[in-house]
Amino acid sequence: MRIERAEVIVTSPDRNFVTLKLTTDDGLTGLGDATLNGREQAVVAYLAEHVVPLLLGRDAHRIEDTWQFLYRSAYWRRGPVTMAAIASVDMALWDLKGKAAGLPVYQLLGGASRTGLLAYGHASGRDEQELFDSVRSHQEQGYRAIRIQAAVPGLKSIYGIASNATYDGNTGVRYDHEPAQRGGLPNEEDWDTRSYLRHIPTVFEAVRNEFGPELPLLHDGHHRMTPIQAAQLGKSLEPYGLFWLEDCTPAENQEALRLVRQHTTTPLAIGEIFNTVWDYQQIVREQLVDYVRSAVTHTGGITHLKKVLDYASQYQIKSGMHGPTDISPVGMAAAMHLGLAIHNFGIQEYMRHGEKTDAVFQQSYTWQNGLLHPGDQPGLGVELDTDEAGKYPYVRAYLPYNRLADGTVHDW
Ligand code: EZ4
Ligand code: CO
Fold first, then answer.
1. Which atom of ligand 1 is found nearest the CA of 293?
2. Chain segment 86-120, per-residue pLDDT in tens
3. Ligand 1 mutation target, pool 16, 222, 297, 319, most atoms within 8 A of CB
4. Which residue, judged by its Cα, is nearest atom 12 of ligand 1?
5. What H or E segment, with its residue span, contains residue 42?
6. pLDDT value at position 174?
């Protein structure tokens, strides 16, 4: 099974997606997701200019060898662009191997360890009523775990709050959180950590009073706190029994989490911007978090993320794979196959894609009673309709950024 063709497909139904499509000499096709929100074209160039020439003629069955070759032969290692590119090759090879074997990828990874994957969605609101409505609407859609993000009094626009709480005119689908702005330049948002730290516990108190103690609730701090601020927040949220507090500090400094851990029993999750097992080395060894947030798409594919999660499993750390709309249906399917197979699955983030995206990427994964399942099609179970994809050319899009009241740039 030789790789005969490798195409990099960019399409923008609802948002930009980068997909690698491999075709073998016996006519099988495999897909991989290489979408890096706001930096899509960097991965396109990395793949098209540097990776595609290396793939042609290679044995598509040699997944581990191809991974090691792409990682080590570049000399320049790691980083989101490189690791998203490698991830897409890895996913496409698993897709091909599954199709060649006539088996869904989760079977190749050891088979199902559970019947389905608990998933959480994003509720948000500019005020209490809007937040409660958003939680209810998620419950109606079947979500059994819900992330809570709320506006902070005095701040105009912050991460995680739907800028348009009604329906998206293009897709007819409500996006509770879609931060990338299409066209133009990055939006400026504002931030004040002290206001946030004061306000958020009152939001969780209100949500618990309204929805009771059982519903698993999550919250994303989105890298904006110092360690001592994160410790304060974790402590003040303890009465509300969070499932996790995510990205409480900027993640580059792994040691920062020691201080947070010393002060709070609120479970911690981190890693959506991590790329390799090396980013987790200290965090896992010292048990500084409870959930690994890496996406298959941004962490070198199924092959590498499985190694990260196997390492984490020795420390009772579970998966909580990143699953925003900027992970394509191909990347989501890869996450579901991996999540179904591993023993230390925790939860899967799941934001539903829009109708146009669903028309471009035909999926066989299912969402029933709050549980995801990758389906039983051979391979990953997602096919790309190239005619549909061709209708939506790339649109430049940027993530927003933050400034404090005095004009200082702050983590977003
Ligand atoms: O900001 O995916 O937990 N989810 C997140 C996401 C990220 C975006 C960035 O592309 O933090 O919403
Ligand atoms: Co996050």
1. 3
2. 999 999 999 999 999 999 999 999 999 999 999 99
3. 222
4. 324
5. helix 40-45
6. 46
